[in-house]
Design brief:
94 residues; four-stranded antiparallel beta sheet; 24% strand
């Protein structure tokens, strides 16, 4: 199950995020979103746990706890349905 985690402290890295979720079971990956321009955390990330029961336990246990200044939002990630729609300006090129 892919899990979305928001409200992360900006100094938290992938390894620390992984460590938090490993307490609840097998964790395949943990990735903090990084701003490409600044190289700093965006304050959210994604965790992948293969066992649904362990993932649900992690979500229930970690949602709304505070690791820093704000409470975490932990929930099942919503599947993306593909890339965002493009703005197709059909200019006639002759």
């Amino acid at each position: 199950m892919k899990i979305f985690v928001a409200g992360l402290p900006y100094d938290l890295d992938d390894a620390e995020l992984m460590e938090i979720f490993e307490k609840f079971g097998t964790t395949l990956s943990a990735k903090v979103a990084i701003d490409k321009e600044t190289g700093k955390s965006k304050g959210f990330g994604f965790v992948d746990m293969p066992d649904a029961a362990e993932a649900k336990d992690a979500i229930e246990s970690l949602n709304d706890i505070s690791l820093g200044k704000k409470p975490l939002v932990v929930k099942q990630a919503e599947e993306r349905s593909g890339p965002p729609p493009r703005n197709n300006n059909n200019f006639n090129r002759r």
